[in-house]
Amino acid sequence: MKKRYLVLENGSVYEGEAFGAETDVMAELVFNTGMSGYQESITDLSYRGEMIVFTYPLIGNYGVNRDDFESLRPAASAIVVHEIARRPSNWRKMMSLAEWAERTGMPGITGVDTRALTRELRDQGAMKAALVDEITDDVYAKLHDFETPTDLVAEATTKTQYQNPTDGVSIALIDFGLKNSILRSLAKRGVNVMVFPADVSAETVLAANPDGILLSNGPGNPEDAAYAIPTIQALQEVLPLMGICLGHQLFALSNGAQTYKLKFGHRGFNHAVRHLAHDRLDFTSQNHGYAVDRDSLATTNLEVTHEEINDLTVEGLRLKNHHAFSVQFHPDAAPGPHDAEYLFDDFLNMIAESQKETTQHA
C-alpha cells in the first residue's frame, strides 16, 4: 500500500498507508467515538468539510450496504483509521469500505495511531489537517492559510423542493443537510413530508399549508446560516416547530440566544443526556462542533429541557410562549441508540394539541 501522511496544523505528523481515492485534502480534523455506524457517519452531511478520525480500532468490518446511507455520497472529506478491515463480512454487504471509498472519491489513511491522535485532539482541540503523499514546506503554508468553508449548508441542502407523500399529518422540513434517517423516522409514523431548501422563505413554506415545521441537522457554524433566522422567526409564530442538531442551534439564534464552538465537539453514539423535567437519562447519537451558550438564554423566552451529563452543554430547548422545541442530538438514532426516538411522537402530539386549540378558538 502507498504511504500517506496526516499533517496537523500544530506540526504533528502521522504516517500511514493510503486507501480510497489518492487525492490530497485539507479539512478540519475531528474524532468520532462510535464502535459501529461508520457508513452512516461518513455519509452524514453534518460532517461536510470535516475529516473523521475513528477511535474504534477496526473500521469497515461489515463493509458497506445499500440501506445505511444518510446521503448518496461521502459527506466527510476523508477518514483516518487505525486499521481498515481486509475481509469484511455481513449478509447485507455490497462491497468493502475501501472499495466504496475508491469508487466515490473519498481519501483515507490506515495504520495511524488513532489513540494518540485522539488524545492530541482532545487536549488541543479540533484543528486543521492535510492528508498528503509527501510532506513539503508548501503543505504547511497551505494548511496555515486554509479556512473552513462558510457555505457548507448551501452545499449540503437540496436545490429543489420535493415531497415524501402520505395522507397523514403534513410537515414542512427545512433541509440544512438532512439525514435520510429523519425521513425514515417520519415515514414510519405516516407523516407527509415536504422538503424545502435552506434558504426558503416563510411565505413559500406557508403556501404549502403544513401542519408543522421541522428544522434539520446540517454542517458548520450556525452563524453561517443566519439567513434562515427570519424564516424561523416567522414560522414559529404560527405553527408547531421542532429543531434537530443545526436546526436546534438556529432555533436558539432565532430567539435571541448565542452559540459558541466547542473545543472538540460531541461525535459518537453513547452521549448521555438528562431530560430535566422527567429526570430521565437517554443515550443519544450526536455530531456537532457548536453548542448553545447557556448564559445567553437569560434574556430569552427559551428554557433548557435537556443537558449533557458530562459537560452540561445545552442539549434541548423549549420556547415558553409557543409550541416549539429543539434538541442538539439525533433522535432518529442512525446510528446509535433509539432512546430518544419518542421525540418525534412528542412533536406529532404537539401538532395535534395545537390544532385542537385552534379549533376551540375558532
UniProtKB/TrEMBL annotation:
Q: What is a biological process (GO) this protein takes part in?
A: glutamine metabolic process
Locate the region CPSase.
1-170
Reaction(s) this enzyme catalyzes, per UniProt: L-glutamine + H2O = L-glutamate + NH4(+); hydrogencarbonate + L-glutamine + 2 ATP + H2O = carbamoyl phosphate + L-glutamate + 2 ADP + phosphate + 2 H(+)
> Does the record carry RNA-binding as a key word?
no
Q: Which SMART domains match?
A: CPSase_sm_chain (SM01097)
Summarize the protein's role. Answer: Small subunit of the glutamine-dependent carbamoyl phosphate synthetase (CPSase). CPSase catalyzes the formation of carbamoyl phosphate from the ammonia moiety of glutamine, carbonate, and phosphate donated by ATP, constituting the first step of 2 biosynthetic pathways, one leading to arginine and/or urea and the other to pyrimidine nucleotides. The small subunit (glutamine amidotransferase) binds and cleaves glutamine to supply the large subunit with the substrate ammonia.
Q: What is this protein identified as?
A: Carbamoyl phosphate synthase small chain
